[in-house]
Amino acid sequence: MTDSIAEIVKRACAAETNAWGYGIWSHHITKVVEHCRRLAPVFKADPEVVHLAALLHDYAPIKDSTLYAEHHVHSPLEAEKVLKQFGYPAETIEAVKHAIAAHRGSVKVERLSPEAECLATADAIAHFESIPSLLYLVYVTRKMDIDEGAAWVRAKLERSWAKLNPQMQELAKEQYASALKTLGTAPKTNGKPAIVCLCGSTRFGEAFQQANLRETLAGRIVLSTGSNSKSDTELLATGELTEEAKANLDGLHRHKIDLADEVLILNVGGYIGKSTRSEIEYAELKGKAIRYLEPIPATKA
Ligand SMILES: [Fe+2]
Ligand SMILES: [Fe+2]
Q1: Is the whole model's pTM more than 0.90, yes or no?
Q2: What backbone torsions phi and psi does residue 196 show, to the nearest 5 degrees?
Q3: Which of 33, 41, 134, 162 is least crowded, fewest Cβ atoms below 10 Å from its Cβ?
Q4: Number of C-beta neighbours around residue 277 at 10 A
Q5: 209 alpha carbon – ligand 1 mean position (Å)
Q6: If you measure from the C-alpha of residue 122 to the centroid of ligand 1, how many angstroms do you get, rounded to a whole number?
Q7: Backbone dihedral angles phi then psi of residue 292, each to the nearest 5 degrees
Q8: Are 29 and 54 in contact (CB under 8 A)?
Q9: Domains, the chain, with CATH or none
Q10: Distance (Å, rounded) from C-alpha 146 to C-alpha 138?
Q11: Beta-carbon-side half-sphere exposure of residue 114 (alpha carbons within 13 Å)
């Protein structure tokens, strides 16, 4: 019977009305099923219940994307209809419905069964491995721009991470770290916000201010230059900065890079000066994630 239900969900994924595209079947649902099968013994969960819940947990928004925001409410109801058609016992249906209702990281529904824990964990791990389908969602379906889409996906992964218990975080940490690396940022450590260091020519004071605000609003700790109002060249010209002090500032900025999880290069108009170039090389050497304000030709990355 589970094969027939898998066929129903697969057909819904292939339908034109599915806003996520067929990839949600091949990149997400099948992976959640696979992880549930693997994790059921770990959680001492009923393998049939978690298999059914994995197949049907996102069924409502696959059929109608407007139900996405409340799909922890709609998918259990859709699952109930399907399972009743196939004559499943009431207790199986109730167990599947609860697991689906509690599977989301963004909605606080208490997980009261090992099947609910198992599905939530499998769903989270699948998200870490399903970057292509999440990118399809933000860039194709929701038409977000690059930064907005990456921030949305990152926030989703962070919620998925937060819903894992410590034991499962240990099992999933490599997938989580590599997923975040793909998005151009380092993972939060011990629940603390990521630290970003801004790098670029001090002539772009306004870009520093804007990036500082944007990154802070995105929940990151920002390390920046000492002055946003005057460039180093202006400070040197007025005598407020000596050549020796300038060299010290460059050294100080490298210490900031050391503290950061990632650097954001403010390459306004594509400009990357000599000292910024050396900061990029330093960040690369230290294995920091590197983001750029403006797209750069691949050969220069
Ligand atoms: Fe979901
Ligand atoms: Fe899901």
Answers
A1: no
A2: -115, 135
A3: 41
A4: 13
A5: 37
A6: 11
A7: -120, 145
A8: yes
A9: 2-182 (1.10.3210.10), 195-300 (3.40.50.10400)
A10: 9
A11: 11
Ligand nearest to the CA of 124: 2
Q: At which residue do the structure tokens 């201010």 appear?
A: 209
Find tokens 């450590």 and name the residue.
189
Question: Ligand 1 mean position to 259 CA, how many Å?
Answer: 36
Sheet holding 262-265, edge to edge: 221-223, 195-199, 262-265, 289-292
Tens digits of pLDDT across the chain (301 residues): 889 999 999 999 999 999 888 888 988 999 999 999 999 999 999 999 999 999 999 999 999 988 988 999 999 999 999 999 999 999 999 999 999 999 987 677 888 999 999 999 899 888 888 788 788 888 988 888 887 788 788 878 877 777 777 777 777 888 888 888 888 754 455 567 889 999 999 888 889 998 898 888 878 899 998 876 677 778 888 888 888 887 788 889 999 999 998 899 998 988 999 889 999 989 888 777 788 887 665 433 3
Identify which of 91, 117, 13 has the alpha carbon closest to the alpha carbon of residue 56. Answer: 13
CA 211/CA 214 separation, integer angstroms: 5
Ligand closest to the CA atom of residue 70: 1
